[in-house]
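lol forgot to send this yesterday, sorry. struct tokens for the thing we talked abt
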């Protein structure tokens, strides 16, 4: 059974950086895409970044040039590097893989 576990988020000052990881247990990690979503209070969950099995990436316009999604198939792990963080990036971040969700991790950007 596929299970996803996100790393701990945290409190970051505006302009700061944070890297999230998503560790996936189970089989077939390397042949499926993986997505990062986020959900801010009172808002719908939105797609932030996508990585294909071969490493092609897509980003929401709001994070282009600041966030980078990557994957390390040998470790069944994906990452979301977040730079130049803004208060509006504050949300619970989730990874999604093979139609499974992680538990979510809180990222708060505030001074």
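and heres what i got for the seq, position by position
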């Amino acid at each position: 059974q596929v299970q996803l576990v996100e790393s701990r988020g945290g409190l970051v000052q505006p302009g700061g950086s944070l890297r999230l990881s998503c560790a996936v247990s189970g089989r077939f990690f390397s042949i499926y895409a993986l997505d990062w979503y986020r959900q801010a209070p009172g808002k719908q969950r939105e797609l932030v970044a996508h990585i294909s099995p071969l490493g092609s990436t897509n980003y929401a316009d709001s994070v282009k040039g600041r966030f980078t999604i990557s994957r390390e198939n040998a470790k069944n792990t994906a990452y979301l590097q977040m730079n130049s963080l803004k208060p509006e990036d504050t949300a619970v971040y989730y990874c999604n893989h093979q139609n499974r969700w992680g538990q979510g991790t809180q990222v708060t950007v505030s001074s």
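The chain is about 0% helix and 50% strand. anyway ping me if u want another try
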